[in-house]
Amino acid sequence: MDEVKRDKAQELEALRRRIADLDAHSIDSLYGLEPVYEPGKGPGDLLPEEFVAVQCPYCGERLETRVDLTNDEPSYIEDCQVCCRPIEFTAERDDGGALLAVKVQRVD
Ligand SMILES: [Zn+2]
Fold first, then answer.
1. What is the pLDDT of residue 53?
2. In this structure, are residues 89 and 54 in contact, taking their beta carbons and an 8 Å threshold?
3. How far is the CA of 62 from the centre of ligand 1 (A)?
4. Distance from the alpha carbon of residue 74 to the mean position of ligand 1, in angstroms
5. Ligand 1 center to 61 CA (angstroms)
6. Phi, psi at residue 48, to the nearest 5°?
7. Percent of the chain scoring above 90 in pLDDT
8. Cα 55 to averaged position of ligand 1 atoms, centre (Å)
9. Where are the domains of the chain?
10. Ligand 1: centre distance to CA 73 (Å)
11. Positive/negative CA dihedral, 36, 37, 43, 47
């Protein structure tokens, strides 16, 4: 029994060390690649994309859209899945880049 416990403890310790190594390494490389992230805030906190439900400004249908949070451009145009008219989506994000809200408006 004790033997097994010790093995488990060692396994855990090794795993913990590996995670710590990985973190330090990935944070370094991420800071190098993505200077937009604020120090102290891990990029792991942010999703690269989020699904949001909005209402079409033309036909009023409820739509689900995927917001690309890796895109620096806050607004983009996508056709309504129901009436096929172009909708301008504007993503509002906080300082850390997390999605706060998505606004939709007509493009005409
Ligand atoms: Zn529509």
1. 93
2. yes
3. 8
4. 21
5. 6
6. -70, -20
7. 35
8. 8
9. 1-40, 46-106
10. 23
11. negative
Nearest CA to 96 out of 75, 65, 68, 69 is that of 69
Q: Which two tokens stand for residue 72?
A: 């620096």
User: Residue 53: in which H helix or E strand, if any?
Assistant: strand 49-55
List pLDDT tens digits, range 32-60. Answer: 555 555 555 555 566 788 899 999 999 99
Query: pTM, whole model, 2 decimals?
Result: 0.55
106 C-alpha to center of ligand 1: Å?
10
**SS3 label, residue 76:** strand
77 CA from centroid of ligand 1 (Å): 13
> Which residue's structure tokens are 């005409």?
108
In 10 A of CB 57, how many CB atoms? 16
Taking each continuous run of H as one helix and of E as one strand, the counts in the chain are: 1, 5
DSSP 58: T
- Cα(96) to ligand 1 centroid in Å equals 32
